[in-house]
Amino acid sequence: MRVWRDEDGAKFENSDVCFGREYKPDTDKVDIAKISIRGRFPDKGWGYLEESHEMAVILRGEGYALKKDGEQFDLKSGDVIYIEPMTKWCWGGDMDMIVVCGPAFQPEKHKLEEN
What domains are defined for the chain? Predict the structure, then answer.
């Protein structure tokens, strides 16, 4: 068992509009992050995870997840979203969320596609 205080998380900034703190246990099976979105991320194109399943709980604000095929999921505080690996999509809006990845997020397996 382990407890992290807020400040124990590793700070990250994917862009000016996507930033937060990541918390990783001593396993590659799962991790969790507190993420803030303040616009569209990625700003152009689409992101996807090669292996990780991702679930997010919207804690504050409103926004959306937009799939490359045009399907949009409007999100507000209290909503939960699940995103399968290899789904090409983006975040947008002004919201704070908790995001869990399993297996744990690996930067080299997070890809960006321009179109």
Answer: 11-113 (2.60.120.10)
